[in-house]
UniProtKB/TrEMBL annotation:
It holds the Pfam family CitG. GO terms for biological process: prosthetic group biosynthetic process. HAMAP family: CitG (MF_00397). This is Probable 2-(5''-triphosphoribosyl)-3'-dephosphocoenzyme-A synthase. GO terms for molecular function: ATP binding; triphosphoribosyl-dephospho-CoA synthase activity. It catalyses: 3'-dephospho-CoA + ATP = 2'-(5''-triphospho-alpha-D-ribosyl)-3'-dephospho-CoA + adenine. Its EC number is 2.4.2.52. Belongs to the CitG/MdcB family. The gene is citG. It comes from Moryella indoligenes. Keywords: ATP-binding, Nucleotide-binding, Transferase.
Length: 272
């Protein structure tokens, strides 16, 4: 989470250079949030390690811990939602890694993601059934719930139900390729973020903007990568301009930021 937030310049997102499209949070907010959340991620890893029941029966235990982590996040940030999605994704992956650690010394990203899908998929099916019963006009709907009811967007729940395909097919291969090519840490993370932006249906973009904004962001990401990405002068110039454009449009791909954090986490686990 800290490597993600310090990576810069990220389009529309909080980083060490600026607060992106946000007036309610900065790097300090993310530092406070990370400190508040981390103990719960450890708790979810330990739940995964010690729980001996079926994968799907583990999820409700994680949901309780994740809910407590959300409360700790809101207490630490004064009510700002910095990492609600990250708690879900990183919590699930931590539990999955803990569960696999019982039987293997060498953790592998693909196996962690596959186990995470076994843990989450049945509950996500029930979640989609629950969401279908919600009223489209309810003021209580979250961004994700509203997008699901209006447009069938599955968002973070869909990613978990499918075993995080954007992580598996795009984020992790891109990060590994960038690190093998000896890019700087910033450039490797920025190019990975651009690959995530190419494919992720980020409900933050869809709720703050529109589907047209999501397609625009995809095309800009593709163009920057074709210029050579963050390690080229032209690519970095275009990335800085994209950040300005996202700030002007008030667009912030928070989901993509979480998937970057998850890719960094999984690659780090493989080297333990
Ligand atoms: C499953 C839940 C976590 C879903 O809760 P909810 O319905 O409230 O969430 P959504 O509205 O669906 O948003 C989900 C957040 O997930 C990130 N995200 C978005 N799209 C994707 C995607 N395609 N794949 C993966 N992740 C995605 C994103 O989170 C990040 O952005 C937030 C910060 O940005 P900001 O723009 O400020 O966001 P908002 O404050 O919402 O916008 P404004 O109002 O300011 O405009 C931050 O959350 C980042 O993490 C989406 O926001 C929930 O139901 C649940 O189950 N929670 C508790 C259970 C749990 O955590 N269990 C533990 C492990 S199983
Ligand atoms: N760096 C960041 N900026 C804005 N929203 C985020 N959600 C997760 N990381 C974020």
């Amino acid at each position: 989470m800290l490597e993600e937030v310090f990576t810069a310049p990220k389009p529309g997102l909080v980083d060490r250079f600026d607060n992106g499209a946000h007036s309610d949070m900065d790097v300090r907010t993310f530092l406070l949030s990370t400190a508040a959340i981390t103990p719960f991620l450890r708790e979810m890893a330990e739940l995964g390690y010690h729980y001996e029941g079926s994968a799907e029966k583990l999820f409700p235990l994680l949901r309780r811990s994740g809910g407590a982590a959300e409360q700790a996040m809101f207490r630490a940030t004064g009510g700002v939602n910095t990492h609600k999605g990250a708690i879900f994704t990183l919590g699930l992956l931590s539990a999955s890694a803990g569960r696999l650690r019982r039987s293997t010394a060498q953790l592998n990203a693909a196996e962690i993601l596959s186990e995470a899908q076994k843990i989450a998929a049945p509950s996500m099916k029930a979640e989609f059934t629950r969401m279908r019963q919600l009223s489209k006009d309810s003021p209580e709907l979250s961004h994700g719930e509203r997008l699901f009811l209006l447009h069938g967007e599955c968002g973070i729940r869909g990613e978990a139900a499918e075993g995080f395909p954007t992580l598996t097919r795009h984020a992790i291969p891109a990060l590994r390729a960038a690190l093998s090519a000896k890019l700087s840490p910033d450039a490797a993370r920025l190019d990975t973020l651009l690959h995530i932006l190419l494919y992720l249906n980020d409900t933050n973009i869809l709720s703050r903007g529109s589907h047209r904004d999501l397609l625009w962001l995809r095309e800009e990401s593709r163009r920057i990568l074709s210029l050579g990405g963050a390690s080229s002068e032209a690519g970095m110039r275009a990335l800085k301009q994209l950040n300005c454009d996202c700030i002007r449009k008030k667009l912030s791909p928070g989901g993509a930021a979480d998937i970057l954090a998850a890719a960094l986490f999984l690659c780090a686990l493989e080297h333990i």
